[in-house]
Amino acid sequence: MLNELLGILDKFGLSAEKRPLSALFSSKELNQKLYAQHFSGRSAVNESMRAQLLCFSTDSTIPLKRFIACQIAVDQRTDDGRIFRTTGIITEAVQGASDGALISYLLTIEDPLSLLNHRKNSRVFLNKNEIEVIEILHKEWCQRSRVYAASNQLDLRGLNENYEIKTQITQYNETDFQFLKRLLARISVNFIQKEQHAFVASFSTDIQAKKLSLFDQNQFLNQLSRQNIRFHRSDATERFDSITQISAKRMMQATQVHLQRWRSDFIDQEQTQKTSKHQHSENISNFGSGLELSYAITPASINDLNQKDGADRADILHLEKLAKNQTLMLDQLAKVFVAKSTVRDAEVGCWFELLGYTQIDQHRGADNEYIITSKEFFNQNNLPKDLNYQCQCLVEESNWLDKLVGFNGERQGNILNLQRREVPVLPIYDPILDRPKAHPMHARVTGEQGETVYVDEWSRIKVRYLFSRSEDNVHASNAGSSETDRDSAWVEVLTNFAGKGFGSRYLPRVGELVLLDHIDGDIDRPIVVGRIHESERYPSKFDDKGKLPDTRYLSGVRSQEINASGYNQLRFDDTTGQISAQLQSSYAVSQLNLGKLSHPKEKEKSDDRGEGFELRTDQWGQSGQVLVYC
């Protein structure tokens, strides 16, 4: 029956090589069983493409799992006869209605990058910048996923800036796609999935891998192959693709950005302010508008005090760069252009010169050049009337009309979002909202081999994040899950008394469990807020006797001798009728006991043994002047 269908199309001059729309699957079997009729979707800079392909077949027994993860190329014949190709991976397949002769299939096609949505993880990267982390992710995906490796390549040629090496970058309960998008947005790097070759020689040309292209300046964007697009109002007799409608939209935005953050090395707040150089309004100046975004962002990270980690030191230039990029982002949002077009090869991430539009022709140079930042598109084959009606009935019976843009309207078209080429393209980023939610979490104290207490001059420690898995740290020789000082950046420890050279000091020891919270809710800025007793790590046993809840009226501090069994303790006994205090060193059982003296408690109460005070030791005692007692 499919051969009969294709034969009918051939008679109407719609052979595979002449159809406006055709699909090529990486599966030869699917190529023999499916006819592509309608293609629609959306693609944009800093987003993954998502499209729908409507197909018909005479075979109702095709297993839907045969579609999933299959590579596909959708080819569209352009106005100049060339073949414009869009490739992707099938991520969803739905079997629709059948009339006994034909059956409908609706396929969802996405970029290879969409595969990253199906892997969620938590892990730590140390002493790397965001681009290095992206390279690690890409390499891992190529090793773990045959489909990804065959369909995606990383292209870094569009990067010109230098990026700060961070002491620690943390992925926390995020998909790899969310993580990648967040990292790139915070350093103002754009990404786009591009074809290796936007045009192919024939519909049967082999499917090639796409490119994940990163860029930080507009100069790295290519011009459309047709170079310019003509404005021409909609006309049924128009021979060439054109823009048929265009409108400009301007929106009020903040014109000033103020950023501030804490600098531990300065013991002071660091701040900067930037004002837009773009004229947002003829009625108010950028300085006098009062429209300002002021952020108190995460404190600057402090790396190894001896620079052993190789991370970049915090610098006011980093803060100024973020403020500048925030200002440029607001300039970008202030004015956009929306165009209705029939240009089938309008490629997202490319620029063109617009011709023939009176209101814009008065501009010169870059003012008349536009970058395509997003595209919503549809295209369909022009079937014979009876066959077209048959297909329409199947679509309506499948309830797919709302999913197929332009199905009952014009044969093809698109909506383009444009911005002037001279305006930098930047990802939308909020330094407060665009980060994962960070909650208190467990960690284990680590250190150099043989060390029991491992700290730096600021009393910071190293920890092992318990979520960090060895298989995720192969790239770093297991750093992150090695149970050594290589598992984290230096982590601050909260104390209840911290003066200049004075205060309280209780340093966590290697192997102890601590509770991490996060400064300003930033997952990359952990701080130890306490330690936890769990399971066999039972609470303090004063005098090495008793246990809770029997000894619940005792409080105080007990330490542990390094690599031995001795201890020191300050113990308060608030038991009714036996209130006392004790300062003790287990060495020579040296004690100062005060109050109602009693034997060490193993239960709620113990036997009395006197009143007043007791100063005793199994060794010698000494006084520099006089020791008076009576």
Give a written overview of the molecule.
- The structure is a single chain.
- With 630 residues, the protein is mainly beta.
- The protein is 13% helix and 35% strand.
- Strands 1, 2, 3, 4, 5, 6, 11, 13, 14, 18, 19, 20 and 21 form a 13-stranded mixed beta sheet that branches.
- The longest helix has 19 residues, at 316-334.
- The chain is elongated and about 115 Å long.
- The mean pLDDT is 91.
Search tags:
31 strands, 13-stranded mixed sheet, mainly beta, OB fold (Dihydrolipoamide Acetyltransferase, E2P), Pnp Oxidase, Chain A, 13% helix, 5-stranded mixed sheet
Major sheet description: 13 strands, mixed
- Structural class assignment: mainly beta
Radius of gyration of CA atoms, rounded to a whole number: 34 Å
CATH class of the domain at 2-113 and 380-407: Mainly Beta
What is the CATH architecture term of the domain at 2-113 and 380-407? Roll
Continuous helix count: 8
Q: Roughly what is the average pLDDT, rounded to an integer?
A: 91
How much helix is in the residues? 10-25%
Shape: elongated
**What is the rounded distance between the termini?**
116 Å
Say how many strands there are.
31
Q: What fraction strand? A: 35-45%
CATH topology label of the domain at 2-113 and 380-407: Pnp Oxidase, Chain A
Uncertain runs are none
